[in-house]
Amino acid sequence: MKANATHSGPAAARNPISPANDVLGLNGADLVHPGLVNHPTLSPSIQVQILSIVDATGSASIGDIVAELPGHTDPVGAIFALIAADVLVVVTAGIIDAHSIVARPDGDPNGGFNSEDDETPPATSPDTAAGSAKDAPPIDVSALAEASLPPDLLLVPSSPLKPRIVMGPGRRRAAFKHVPILQQAGVYIFLRAHSVYVGFGTDVGARIAAGRQMPDGTPNVIIAITDMQDGLSDEDARALERILWSYVSSDEDFSLINGVPDGAPIDPDRYDQLALFASEVVLALRQAGLMFLHGSVRERLASPRAEPERLGAPRRIDDLPEGRVMELNYCGLTALAAERDDGTWLLLRGSDVRIETVNSASASASFQRAAWLHAGLLEEARDGSCYVLKRDISFSSGSAVGHFVSGSRGFGLSSWRAIEPGDDELAELAC
DNA sequence: CCCACATGGGTGAATTGCTA
DNA sequence: TAGCAATTCACCCATGTGGG
C-alpha cells in the first residue's frame, strides 16, 4: 500500500554520519563557509532552497519541504541536519511526522545565520506543494521520527491517514473535477433534503463531476473526502466507502439512496485505520453542522456494530433459533445456521469461522472478517485455530453463509446438511 | 431518461492437491 | 492410484454505472 511505502530512511538512521550523530560535520569534513551547515545530505543550494521554502510563509511542514525537493535522496535528513544545527526548529508538539511544522528559531528570519544569498524564488503555497506530492519520494515518517529519538526509545506506529474534506453546493459539481487535491482515490457524499448517497472514486473529483448518482436532479451539498497525503489506495477507498456508508446508515436525519457498497478485501489492521479515518470525517461533519447531529459525540464516533438488518436478536446459547438448523463441516471446522422461511439464513453464535480467505473468495469474505473483528462480533478462538462468532448474524442465502465462514466459494448451499439439534449440538457451540 | 455494459453474488461443475 | 477435500471456473442473474 502506498501509505506503507518505505525508502532509505531507516538506513540513514543507522548511518554513523546521519544527522543525529554528525550534525556539525565533526567527522572530518571542512566547514566551507561559517554560514553553511556541513552535512552529506546538504549542498549549499539545498540549504538555501529549504530555508527559502520556510521563509516564504514563516514556516513549512516537513511534507511540504520534501515535496519541493523531488530529486533529493534524503530530504528529511537534510531538514534534520538544519534542525540539529539550530538553523531550524520544530514548532509543533508531539511525534515528528510529515505534518510537523518547522520554522526559524524565535521567528528570526535569519535564524542566527546570515542568509544574504537567500534569493531563490519564493516557495509555492502549501496547496500547490501538496498537489505535487505525488512526484516526490515517499515520506517514511516513522524513520524520520525515529531518527530524532534518543537510543532505546522506539516509535509506536500510528495510522498515517488524515482526512481532507472539501464541500460545495451541488450546482458547482463540475468544479470538483478541477481540484488537484481531489484527483486521487477517495469517497464522497451527496446530500439532497433527507436523502444521502455515499460513493467512491479512484479519481474522486472526476467521479463527482461525471456521475448521475442522485435520481432526482442534482444534490444540494457535495462533500469530497480524500487523505491529506494521498494515502488511500483504490481498494482502501472501496472499503472506506462501505465503512462510511455504515456510519451514515445510523444518521436518522438521512435515508440512504444506495444499498450496501461492495467494499474490498482488506486486512483487519487497515480496516481499523479506515474506521478511525471515517470517525474523524464524522466528527468534522458534525462540527460543521452538516450530518451526524443526533445523540452524543461518543455515540456518533462509534460506528454501528453491524450494517442494518445483519445482527440477530440476542439469544441464549441453548435456545433454539427460529427455522431449520443446518450444519456445515469444512476445513476441520464446524458452523451451524438456521434456514428461515423467508429464505434468509442466520449464522449461529459459537460457529467457527476460518481465519484465512482464499484468493478467489469475494471481497465480502475478507471485508466482513475485518469489520466484525473490529466490532467484536468475531473473536479469535482460545487455541488460535479459527475465529468464533459471538452473535447471530443474518445472511441472504446458505451459499453466502458457507462462503463467509469458509472464506472460499467452495462451500455453497449443497454443503449444508440438516441436523436435529439436540442439547449436545448446541452445547458443542457453547464450548 | 433510457439502454447497454460491467461487476459481483449465488450456484454447481470441473479441476487441483493431498493422503492413505 | 483411489478417494476425499479444497479451490477455481463458468454460468446466470440482479444491480449499478456511464454514455448517448
TrEMBL record:
Residues 106-136 are annotated as: Disordered. It comes from the Bacteria. This is DUF4357 domain-containing protein. The lineage of its organism: Bacteria, Pseudomonadati, Pseudomonadota, Alphaproteobacteria, Hyphomicrobiales.
